[in-house]
Amino acid sequence: MDLVTSTWTEPANTATALLLLGRGTDPASERGVDCPGDLPAPSDPDLVARATAAKAALGERVFVLGHHYQRDEVIQFADVTGDSFKLAREAAARPDAEFIVFCGVHFMAESADILTGPGQQVILPDLAAGCSMADMAVLGQVETAWEQFTDLGIADDVVPVTYMNSSADIKGFVGRNNGVVCTSSNAKRALDWAFEQGQQVFFLPDQHLGRNTAVLEMGFDLDDCVLYDPHKPHGGLTPEQLRDAKMILWRGHCSVHGRFTIDSVREVRERVPGVRVLVHPECRHDVVRAADEVGSTEYIIRALDAAPAGSAWAVGTELNLVRRMALAHPDKHITFLDRTVCYCSTMNRIDLPHLVWALEELVAGRVPNRITVDEDTAKYARVALDQMLALP
Ligand code: SF4
To answer: What would you give as a GO molecular function for this chain, any one (predicted)?
Structure first.
């Protein structure tokens, strides 16, 4: 990609990102760090040839999925790119592919295993690629909360709704308790359906998506939402608060989208005249309120593709995607909403060395890092996913 013809400006390095990227200077936050950017490429150039050869050797037996937040060095080998749900469905639509190599994070690979056939094996190139948001809702904690609702006599009227970004365990819990999975594209439809089934919604694990959808799309007040903190006794809520709430929001969030602040929005409006601020609904409520548009990853891509030449955008989502969109549209001024870099560190665990290793292992007849979901959990998770697919 030609950086010279683009209006893209790389956000400033934070100390952590400096270590990841190996260039720039940040003496204020990390004493002594000053790297002029002359380091060799992080990946051995031979790895491109090795990945190409291993993929060719596997042919139709392998299907590589690449999430939008993945690095370019990985995305170039993806047979299809997309958000987590689109990728899981793409995998299910390729029953002839024996191996699904999922360049994304753990919960996504689990969803792919749930939706694919018994003859297919899902591989995550680095098992450390988890999701901090999904990890914020652990089955034991959620079951404790549910027991509390049962003791209060409200469980029969509470419908659990979980965001796609949750573990298979949580999706299974939701399916077992007659709830539904949602994505950031269909959260309103899922909540409409849930409120037809009961009086209250228990929303997992992303408080921001739950709150933003309930308040901005469904007309609820902020006071209709309460925050259930699994680390406090009784979730930190009184029985009255739990009984009166329309939305019981789990105290989880995305560490990437949670970084954008109202100050980022103010600052970019001063810096870029006429800019339109476009953010993901995993951002905080005040940020979403201050933005001009809010939408899922696929929405963001469509909006930027359709934007007129010369228009200016500040985008609040993961940096790999924003950079890729900016470089694909040099006729538009696309900038990152924050002044400093903001990668999903767990997504970035998948790099070219891990992808090469996974593909070469498969060529050698070994299946590395297979992700499997037990049959019982998968059965109920499928119930909640099927309910999502049946949403009107
Ligand atoms: S961007 Fe946020 S929600 Fe997505 S994988 Fe990373 S931590 Fe999880």
So the answer is: metal ion binding
